[in-house]
Request: fold
Amino acid sequence: MKYRTLTGTDLIVSEVGFGVWSVATTWWGVKDRGFGVRLLQEALDLGVTFYDTADTYALGEGETILDEAFRGKRDKLVIATKFGYDIYSQQGERKGFSEMPQLWTPEHIRYACEQSLRRLNTDYIDLYQLHNVRLQTLQDDAVFETLERLKEEGKIRAYGPALGPDIGWHDEGLWTLENRKGIAMMQVIYNLLEQWPTNQFLAEAERQNTGLIVRVPHASGLLDGSYNPEKHYDKTDHRNHRRYEWMGRGLKAVEKLSFLYGPETGRTIGQAAILFSLSAPIVASVLPNITTSDNLKEFASASDCPPLTDAEIAEVRRLWDTELMELLDQPYADSENKPIPAAAAQA
Reply:
């Protein structure tokens, strides 16, 4: 395992982190909490020190599971959690994947922070993230004044938005980088098949000294070899939101990227996907969805594989501009609604 400093902070995180929702909820196939605890502990043994969770994951269980797995080892961990959803008005077990109401008042932020501290059994949160936040909230000074006070009080060490996949979030990301100088980081989606809009943030994030955390590096199974089109995800699996047709186009796109993985490269497809996300220096850590001991070992060892070469990255960008963007039917336009080549967007 290798480690990076999250730009803009003094936090040192493992290049491969652990997205806790894969073991805290049942949405990714892990049903046994005891197994989830053991998987988290195995991750730490493999050098994974960065754990990303949220208060909304199983209505708090995504935080208590970390305390159960790591009690007495807080000093070995960097913990990120999220807030913004009003889980305290939710009655009973959450049903389905529909979005809960959000609440961004200073009073709720403080209350949510205190509850997360209690569930995590800790005095401080390393990264406190605004969960799937909209532009209107990002423009609300009262929200960020509250976060500054929590930071001054030592309850959080740094904060920033975790940008959501279903709200557009292109405008949210750019506005935040240009206008919220106090944030330390942003969490984004960025992978070989979903490069937009993060490829438009990379240069600005470096200019603003804002570190990035990447989730979904494997595009819900397309980039780790686990997706089977004959067994498309059922309604109990969060990945069911991926359209069958889009996943089919994704499989065709993966074929065009075969030069990145295989015995001659020293990488599996899952490792190559992680290394692509890490190829941007401003990215501090990548959060694959971990559900088995085997994929934990594979993903955690990505840091030790040969990094993608400049020539390989250039070919990925060329393919994105000339074939993949159109094949995947991904929105990708500037303010005048004209396509932007990936290479230009990263300049």
